[in-house]
Design a protein that fits this description.
The protein is mostly helical. The chain is built from four helices and four strands; from the N terminus they run αααββαββ. The longest helix is centred in the middle third of the chain and has 82 residues, at 87-168. Mean pLDDT is 92; it is low at 238-242.
């Protein structure tokens, strides 16, 4: 195999590795953000559940104040009954007292409903708290793993970039420039082998002359269809096109 091909294959390997590392590094911020969003959502659900408990408790306290006010009115009317000497006034005050008692009964029913709602809401808070705690534990663990992974990837990237620069310096300018143009325009593998007389890049059958030239290992030969750089090794299963 031509030394230029060997160096280009190594260069291609470095470029592909660098590309994969950069792609994975680009995904890390999104993964980190997704974990934080999940934690934020669970915390928001917990906050909403707590607000619901506070709202119910606030309403229950309002009802207690209403009952207190009605009981004070009952006491007032009762005192007025003791002081009045008129039968009509006494009956009117009695009606007011009965009306207050009916209102108290209705309010007490609503208080019971509030207590039942509070119990249900507190259970919801407990469940939401468990979800939020689990989400935070998961985030802390996975964010830590992402941070470690990011550090490792950056180390690997720096190593491959240094190796790539060293290998690139060993490739003739014209060959390196040709390779770089192909890699930039096509991406993926642009230095490809021949299998069964077919280009390993575009999978088109190659003319016999091209296959023979590649097998001769005398110069860089490109595929007439996709322009990728071709190479041949003896362990390839290649059938010369007729």
């Amino acid at each position: 195999m031509l030394e230029a091909i060997e160096n280009l294959l190594i260069l291609q390997d470095r470029d592909l590795r660098i590309e994969r590392l950069e792609e994975e590094l680009e995904q890390i911020p999104a993964k980190r953000a997704a974990l934080k969003d999940k934690t934020s959502s669970s915390q928001a659900a917990l906050d909403a559940a707590k607000r619901r408990v506070m709202e119910i408790e606030s309403r229950r306290k309002e009802l207690e104040l209403e009952v207190k006010g009605l009981k004070e009115r009952i006491e007032k009317y009762s005192n007025q009954q003791l002081q009045t000497k008129k039968n009509e006034e006494y009956k009117a005050l009695a009606n007011e007292i009965e009306n207050c008692k009916r209102q108290i009964t209705g309010i007490e029913d609503r208080e019971i409903e509030c207590m039942e709602q509070t119990e249900t809401a507190q259970k919801a808070v407990k469940a939401a708290q468990a979800v939020a705690d689990e989400a935070r534990r998961e985030m802390d663990g996975l964010v830590g793993e992402l941070d470690s992974r990011e550090t490792k990837l950056r180390g690997e990237l720096a190593s491959f970039e240094a190796s790539r620069q060293e290998i690139a310096g060993q490739v003739e300018d014209s060959a390196r420039n040709r390779y770089q143009r192909l890699f930039d325009s096509k991406g993926g593998k642009v230095v490809v082998g021949i299998q069964h007389g077919v280009c390993g890049g575009c999978h088109m059958r190659l003319p016999t002359q091209i296959v023979v030239q590649v097998r001769g290992n005398q110069e860089l030969i490109t595929c007439p269809n996709c322009a990728r750089i071709l190479y041949y090794t003896r362990d390839m299963d290649m059938v010369v096109a007729e």
